[in-house]
Amino acid sequence: MPVRYPRPLRPGDRVGVTSPSSGVAEEHRARLDVAVREVEARGYEVVVGRCMDGAGHVSAPAADRAAELMAMLTDPGIRAVVPPWGGEMAIDLLPLLDWERLRAAEPTWLVGFSDMSTLMTPLTLLTGTATVHGINLMDTPYRVPEGLLSWLDIAAAPQGPGHPLRQTPPHRHRSTGWDDYRTQPEVREFTLDTPGRWTRLDADADVEAEGRLIGGCIETLCNLTGTGYLDVSAFARAESPEGLLVYVEAGGDDAFIIGRNLHGMRMAGFFDAANAILVGRTPAPDAPSLTQHQAVLDALGPLNVPIIADVECGHVPPYLPLVNGAHGRVVHTATRSELTQTLD
In angstroms, how far is the first alpha carbon of the chain from the final one? Predict the structure, then answer.
């Protein structure tokens, strides 16, 4: 089952908005409107679904959320689907999705991160459809720092080996906190108040590695290890026998929990085909005797592959979108860091 790339977005295409996990509370609706207008300003028509309620921890009953997501992903008139943000319980949709129908449908871009990894990574593994990890709709109005791309840039980009998508880190990130969309719904500038670079955890040598990209949020994907929804080894054998670039990121759990999760993912084979591992910069706390970096190295060091941490692919702004299924090439030296993706 080869990797299937949805065709590039073109002006006039429709973009679906639905909440497979958490919806949008009334106090955040103004930000939702700003985000919708941002997508419309790029020339797209936005279709907002019914599963958007933010009064509870999910936007609607699981059956309704699954049905709306299925409808959008199989509607040939909708070319991309993006949630407002993540949440906590997208896992309850997995047994309700019609995977055979998704496999047979023309591929549609599915975008998001955090709890959306629960759906996007299996979608790539089970149907071959490339998905975009790294940003949600509510973050879309932010101006993208030099060196990075937005999900809209990637979804609209030309495809094939002659069209590499190169991203380099801006070397600045937000150290604490988040913008309050209730009082600042129009905010468009990231607060990047702290210098920081990628960090190799396992050695000091330069890194140059290639492979198809696959990964997502540790706290959500760890619950799928050992199930048919997360057979990364089978994907590697079929689509990337030369190996993978595996990326992971922690949203909020402390270093003890992240360390246990990563040990379990390693034992389940999630990293078996990795040529290198990219670890997102995290706001998650250290534990009293274990830092987040130490937890990663303790769990994944036995793999004896390069481990590069503090990559902009997680819950700390800014965001470096990654395409599950794309060919990736990572370079990291004392003076240069970059990730290049090709949609082929």
Answer: 14
**Which residues, 6 or more positions from 245, have their beta carbon under 8 angstroms from its beta carbon?**
209, 210, 211, 212, 213, 214, 274, 275, 276, 277, 278, 328, 330
Q: Burial of 44 by CB count in 10 Å (0-12 exposed, 13-18 middle, 19+ buried)?
A: buried
Q: Return contacts of 289-297, CB within 8 angstroms, 24+ apart.
A: 290/255, 290/256, 290/259, 291/255, 292/250, 292/255, 292/258, 293/199, 293/201, 294/255, 294/259, 295/255, 295/256, 295/258, 295/259, 295/262, 296/201, 296/258, 296/259, 296/262, 297/201, 297/202
Is the model's pTM score more than 0.85? yes
Closest CA to 295 of 268, 265, 324, 318: 265
In which element (H, E) is residue 280 found? strand 274-280
pLDDT band, very low/low/confident/very high, at 159 (cuts 50, 70, 90): very high
Please, what sign has the CA dihedral across residues 93, 99, 104, 110?
Answer: positive
CB-based contact 258:249 (threshold 8 Å): no
**Burial annotation 138-175 (CB, 10 A radius, 16+ → b, else e):** bbbbbebbebbbbbbebbbbebeeeeebebbbbebbbe
Q: Would you say residue 1 has pLDDT above 80?
A: no
pLDDT score of 80 more than 80 = yes
DSSP letter assigned to residue 7: P
Q: Which helix (H) or strand (E) holds 220?
A: helix 218-221
Number of neighbouring beta carbons within 10 Å of residue 278 = 30
Q: Alpha-carbon distance 344 to 8, whole Å?
A: 13
Q: For 334, phi and psi rounded to 5 degrees?
A: -65, -20
Write out pLDDT tens, residues 285-305.
999 999 999 999 999 999 999
Q: Tell me: the pLDDT tens digits for 46-58? A: 999 999 999 999 9
Are residues 253 and 260 in contact, defined by beta-carbon separation less than 8 angstroms?
Answer: no
Q: By the 8 A CB rule, do 235 and 125 touch?
A: yes
Instruction: Kindly report the backbone phi and psi dihedral angles of residue 45, in degrees, each rounded to the nearest multiple of 5, phi listed first.
Output: -95, 130
